[in-house]
C-alpha cells in the first residue's frame, strides 16, 4: 500500500492517546470545583488521569482489574500518587463499581462517559486532518475497547465535514480483539442486538466486554459508513512485531489497528490505492512483556577476544 499513515498517539505526555481528553476533563473538574476525580481503567486512562490530577492538585481514585493491567501503566498510577484500587474482577466490574461510588460520594467521574473528555479527544481527529492539509483520508482505523475513541474521532470528522473543512467524511474502521468483541458481534447483526461478553485477549488495554460508549460509537459507524472488524491475538502480535521492528513500536492493543487494516485489505473492504490513517494508541514501554522476544540477552566476558568471538556470527 502506498498511502498508509500511522499516527502515534503513544507519544503524548503519559504515553497514550488518553491525554488528549484528560487535559480537558481535568481542567473542567477544577473549573467546577470537583473535590476529587476518579475512573475505572485497563491502565492508560488511569495513568493519564493520575498525572493530570496531580498537576491540578486534585485527589485521584482509580479502579483497575487486579492482575490485568500492564506493569508500566500500574507503575504510572502509583508514581503519580493516585489512590489505586485493584478490583478482584474484570474491567467491566471496575467500571460498574466506580460509577456507583462516584454517584454516592460526589466524585467527578472521568471515564469517556464524561462529555468533556470526548470533546478533548476530538483533537486527534482535527489534528490528523490538519496534518494532511485538510485532505480527508478514505479510512480512519483504530482499536476499539470502551468505544470512547471511536465516538470522539467520529464526532470530530463529522463536525469537520459539517463545517466544510473537508470534502468527505472518512470511513471509520473500529478493530476489536476477537476475544473482546461485543461491538463486532453487534455490528455483524446490523446492530439489532447488543451483547455483553466475558472478555479475553492478550491486549489488556481493550479487554472489555461491555463498552460504555456503545451507543455513541454505533452512531459513528452508521454515519460514516464505517465497519467493525475483529482480529485474533496472533494477528495482533504479528502486526505488533512489524510495527516494533520498524523502529516505531507500540503496545499490543495499538497493533490491532495494523492487524485490522491487513484483514480489511485482504477482504477487499479497503482498496490498496485508498488513503488510510491508522492510530497507534499507546507506547511500546507501556507493556514491556507481551509480544516482545524474550531471547536471553547476550552476556559476554569483559575482554575483547570474547566479544570478537561473539560478534563473528553477527557480522557474517
Ligand atoms: N488502545 C489503548 C492503548 C487503550 O488503552 C484503549 C483503551 C484503547 C485502545 C481503546 O480505546 O476504549 O476508547 O475504545 N483504554 C481504556 C483505559 C479502556 O482504561 O485505558 P477505547
Counted beta strands: 9
Protein structure class: alpha/beta
* Helix percentage range: 40-55%
What's the multimeric state?
single chain
Q: Going across the major beta sheet, what is the strand order?
A: 1-9-6-7-8
Tell me the β content: 5-15%
Q: Count the helices. How many?
A: 11
Residue stretches low in confidence (pLDDT < 50, at least 5 long) are: none
N-to-C SSE series? EHEHEHEHEHEHEHHEHHEH
CA-CA gap between termini: 32 Å
Small molecules (ligands, ions, cofactors) in the structure: ligand F0G
- What spatial form do the alpha-carbon principal axes imply? globular
Rounded radius of gyration (Å): 20 Å
Biggest sheet character:
5 strands, parallel
State mean pLDDT (0 to 100 scale): 96
Short description:
The protein is α/β, with parallel strands linked by helices and 316 residues long. It contains eleven helices and nine strands.
Question: Please, could you describe this protein's structure?
Answer:
The chain has helices at about 20-30, 45-55, 70-80, 90-105, 115-130, 150-160, 180-190, 215-225, 235-245, 250-265, 305-315; strands at about 5-10, 35-40, 60-65, 85, 110, 140-145, 170-175, 225-230, 275-280. A five-stranded parallel β-sheet has the order 1-9-6-7-8, with helices on both faces. Strands 4-3-2-5 form a four-stranded parallel β-sheet. Helix content is about 45%, strand content about 15%. With about 325 residues, it is an alpha/beta fold. The chain is globular and about 65 Å long. The model has no long low-confidence stretch (mean pLDDT about 95). Bound molecules: ligand F0G. Ligand F0G binds near residues 18 and 147.
Amino acid at each position: 500500500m502506498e498511502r498508509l499513515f500511522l499516527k502515534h498517539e503513544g507519544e503524548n505526555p503519559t504515553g497514550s492517546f488518553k491525554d488528549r481528553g484528560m487535559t480537558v476533563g481535568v481542567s473542567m473538574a477544577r473549573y467546577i470545583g470537583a473535590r476529587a476525580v476518579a475512573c475505572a481503567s485497563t491502565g492508560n486512562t488511569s495513568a493519564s488521569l493520575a498525572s493530570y490530577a496531580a498537576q491540578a492538585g486534585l485527589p485521584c481514585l482509580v479502579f483497575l482489574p487486579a492482575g490485568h493491567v500492564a506493569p508500566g501503566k500500574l507503575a504510572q498510577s502509583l508514581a503519580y500518587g493516585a489512590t489505586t484500587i485493584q478490583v478482584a474482577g474484570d474491567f467491566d466490574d471496575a467500571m460498574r463499581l466506580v460509577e456507583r461510588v462516584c454517584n454516592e460520594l460526589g466524585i467527578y467521574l472521568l471515564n469517556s462517559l464524561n462529555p468533556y473528555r470526548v470533546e478533548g479527544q476530538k483533537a486527534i481527529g482535527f489534528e490528523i486532518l490538519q496534518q494532511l492539509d485538510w485532505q480527508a483520508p478514505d479510512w480512519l482505523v483504530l482499536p476499539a475497547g470502551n468505544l470512547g475513541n471511536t465516538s470522539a474521532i467520529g464526532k470530530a470528522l463529522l463536525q469537520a465535514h459539517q463545517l466544510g473543512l473537508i470534502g468527505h467524511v472518512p470511513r471509520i474502521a473500529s478493530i476489536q480483539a476477537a476475544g473482546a468483541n461485543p461491538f463486532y458481534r453487534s455490528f455483524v447483526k446490523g446492530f439489532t442486538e447488543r451483547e455483553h461478553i466475558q472478555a479475553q485477549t492478550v491486549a489488556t488495554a481493550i479487554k472489555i466486554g461491555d463498552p460504555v460508549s456503545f451507543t455513541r460509537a454505533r452512531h459513528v459507524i452508521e454515519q460514516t459508513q464505517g465497519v467493525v472488524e475483529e482480529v485474533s491475538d496472533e494477528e495482533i502480535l504479528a502486526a505488533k512485531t512489524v510495527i516494533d521492528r520498524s523502529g516505531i513500536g507500540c503496545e499490543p492493543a495499538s497493533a490491532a489497528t495494523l492487524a485490522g487494516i491487513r484483514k480489511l485489505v485482504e477482504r477487499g473492504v479497503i482498496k490498496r490505492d485508498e488513503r488510510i490513517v491508522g492510530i497507534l494508541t499507546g507506547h511500546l514501554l507501556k507493556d514491556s512483556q507481551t509480544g516482545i522476544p524474550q531471547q536471553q540477552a547476550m552476556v559476554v566476558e569483559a575482554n575483547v577476544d570474547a566479544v570478537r568471538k561473539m560478534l563473528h556470527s553477527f557480522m557474517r
